[in-house]
Specification:
Chain lengths: 260, 434
């Protein structure tokens, strides 16, 4: 953060649903106070004023899936002291990365009558595949609490830190009965980054990893466990491939499962 | 400013205070408007394609991700389409809970649009952040209303952005009665704040503008239609949802990664969203909302797009009023979710997303694997109408400066609360004069 004046921040959007930047506006009790402590130079969803960089902190929501986005992330990186990615799309390529293993032209034909009008890269990729990212907030969508934690850390000049444990730990803390052990429900909680508050298991369903893989996750051993429980390979593959399926750990687990 | 014989293009690269990315391009030839385009350049996300091969059980978790602002709408249209195909009809308790979830989303989305996205236009300000410096109470009220909508969604759906409780057949888990009852004071407050909102927006100076809209909305004989009904227009259209694709056609145009919908028979635009709904379903509003609509100074039906902000405010009253009733009469659905046997099928459904009619259709095999999906979001249906509105507005303002022209266009577009992310595709303003 700059010694003088308010930190200059910017919020950019690539391929995404808007939900993560909406979480910023969903900080209803805090947003005006935060806005008073920073200079929001660029945040087109919320304001018309546009101030050019350099920025102290740039936030990016969304994945890189067009040539334009590729140029944009490089430009943002050049202009920004610190780059923070928001959510599953920016961190893993997002749900739209499900097209990565498929034929994008065939996809365009499936939806658009004139696919020649559609310009999309062959793959939807995370921001970190193209430029250095300083900090990532996970989730589909990101959690308001984690976002607030990061914003306040930045404002007091502390390096942001978020818990690195799994959804499993959140379940134990909440006293949620394990859906996998007690209910034989396939669940990615053991390998998924914390942050949602064990939402799906609290609703009696398995986690589908919308917060992405936790640090040093080992999805392979979880997959073996699921196979041993009689879960079909097709079902495990589906579970691994939703909002964060293009994350390296899940891709590698997918490849191994497909080889068997 | 455009000289008498001037030919050039004016561009607005990127619309602001809308959801998603798009621009405008205005072409002037010999001093006259030649063309205006909403350029949608948001990256296509190909939902219809990657839904193929997925299980019908996963569909609501996927379709929520189309839009962070109206995820429940996409969940509702998709699960109801699949239920139609499966031949199952969830009972009244599930139906009521779905309507309540939807009320939460309408409150959240309408409060966002009224206070944070559109209100600054009427004060000549660039954002609600600036507006808050002079009218802090106003912006706080908007934020608090949005928060109540989010709280309602969170109790039912686990969270407001991409709720996780909705499934084919009902809900994974339903809230206990006491959890919902605890929201009553919040909704009571929101009802009063929404009535305040109607008063506030009724006092805004709306630009004088009348267009010739075909207002299209779901209509239901006994309620203000949200989750079900037939598709009707003020011009006499009355069709079943299953005939949607015969009557409305999606066209693919070069300047947009979003498809544009038109009437299939005559290629004309039509209007969906709060203003269209109010025009079609005024008599079905619950009492307080009806009273607010009658006393707001607008003569219904109304064909001034700027009155959309009033329609949205009245609908917030409706959503709070209904929400209170639905909570008071709430009985926990038991079971929370209907059992169903996998079978092949095809089905469609339409519901009223905050921005208007939202149509989904799915075909799947006997394993419950999706074979085709079709999603027609409200913003795709409004694009052509937005361009028609701009064509009506522009000739009268071409003598202004480029900045003023762009500003007027952007304000007109904002009436529609376009959700470009939802249309899976985006909006740019360019004005070409040569």
């Amino acid at each position: 953060m700059p010694a003088n004046g308010k930190p200059r921040i910017a919020v950019f959007k690539l391929a995404s649903c808007d939900g993560c930047q909406l979480q910023m506006l969903n900080l209803e009790d805090e947003i005006l106070a935060i806005a008073g402590k920073v200079e929001i130079c660029f945040f087109p969803e919320a304001r018309s004023q546009v101030l050019d960089g350099p920025y102290d902190v740039a936030f990016i929501e969304g994945s890189v899936s067009t040539e334009h986005a590729l140029d944009l992330v490089r430009e943002i990186r050049r202009k920004s002291q610190m780059l923070i990615t928001l959510g599953a799309c920016a961190n893993t390529g997002g749900i739209q990365a499900l097209r990565n293993l498929l034929d994008v032209e065939e996809f365009a034909r499936a939806i658009y009558a004139n696919p020649a009008y559609v310009h999309a890269l062959a793959q939807s990729t995370p921001v970190a595949a193209h430029v250095t990212v300083d900090f990532a907030i996970n989730g589909c969508p990101i959690s308001r609490e984690q976002l607030l934690d990061v914003l306040t850390s930045l404002l007091i000049g502390r390096q942001p830190q978020l818990p690195a444990h799994s959804v499993c730990v959140e379940c134990k803390r909440k006293g949620v009965v394990c859906v996998l052990v007690a209910g034989d429900t396939p669940c990615l909680g053991p390998v998924t980054h914390a942050g949602c508050g064990a939402l799906c298991p609290s609703f009696g369903r398995g986690c589908f990893a919308c917060y992405g893989p936790m640090e040093s996750a080992h999805p392979d051993s979880l997959c073996q466990n699921l196979v041993a429980r009689g879960v079909t390979r097709a079902e495990i593959l589906r579970l691994l491939n939703t909002c964060t399926g293009w994350a390296e750990e899940f891709r590698s687990a997918t490849e191994k499962l497909e080889k068997v | 400013m455009i000289a008498a014989n001037e030919t050039r293009t004016i561009r607005l690269e990127s619309l602001t205070r809308v959801e998603g990315e798009g621009g405008l391009r205005i072409e002037v030839h010999d001093g006259h408007l030649r063309e205006v385009k909403l350029d949608v350049f948001e990256a296509p996300r190909f939902f219809e394609a990657f839904l193929r091969g997925r299980s019908i059980r996963e569909v609501p978790d996927f379709t929520a991700r189309i839009c962070g602002i109206c995820p429940a709408a996409h969940q509702m249209s998709s699960v109801q389409a699949i239920e139609t195909a499966l031949g199952i009809t969830p009972g009244l308790e599930i139906r009521a809970l779905r309507r309540l979830l939807y009320c939460g989303e309408w409150i959240e989305s309408h409060a966002l649009h009224i206070y944070l996205l559109q209100a600054p236009d009427f004060f000549g300000m660039e954002s609600a952040l600036t507006l808050a410096r002079e009218h802090a109470e106003l912006v706080h009220q908007g934020l608090e209303l949005k928060k109540v909508g989010n709280e309602l969604m969170t109790v039912i759906g686990g969270r407001s952005v991409h709720p996780i409780s909705v499934c084919v057949g009902g809900f994974w888990k339903v809230p206990r009665r006491d959890e919902l009852l605890s929201l009553l004071p919040r909704l009571e407050w929101a009802l009063q704040a929404s009535l305040d909102t109607v008063r506030f927006v009724s006092e805004l100076a709306l630009p004088d503008f009348t267009a010739n809209y075909e207002c299209v909305a779901l209509s239901h004989p006994r309620e203000y239609a949200i989750n079900e009904g037939s598709i009707v227009s003020l011009q006499g259209l009355g069709i079943l949802v299953k005939d949607f694709e015969q009557v409305f056609l999606e066209e693919h145009v070069a300047h947009s990664t979003a498809l544009h919908s038109v009437r299939a028979d005559r290629g004309t635009s039509y209007l969906v969203g709060p203003l269209a709904r109010m025009n079609v379903n005024l008599t079905h509003l619950p009492p307080l909302a009806r009273k607010a609509a009658n006393e707001c100074g607008i003569v219904w039906p109304c064909f001034n797009p700027y009155a959309g902000i009033i329609a949205r405010a009245v609908e917030m009253v409706m959503a709070c009023e209904e929400g209170l009733q639905l909570i008071e009469s709430y009985r926990e659905p038991d079971p929370p979710c209907l059992e169903y046997a996998p079978r092949a099928g095809e089905g469609c459904a339409a519901t009223e997303a905050p921005r208007g009619l939202l149509y989904h259709r799915y075909r799947f095999n006997d394993q419950g694997t999706v074979q085709s999906a079709r999603i027609v979001p409200p913003t795709c249906q409004n694009y052509r109408q937005i361009e028609d509105d701009l064509r009506l507005l522009l000739p009268a303002i071409l003598d202004r400066t480029d900045a003023e022209i762009v500003d007027a266009c952007e304000k007109l577009v904002r009436n529609y609360d376009p959700c470009i992310s939802c249309s899976t595709h985006a909006v740019r303003v360019h004005i070409r004069r040569n």
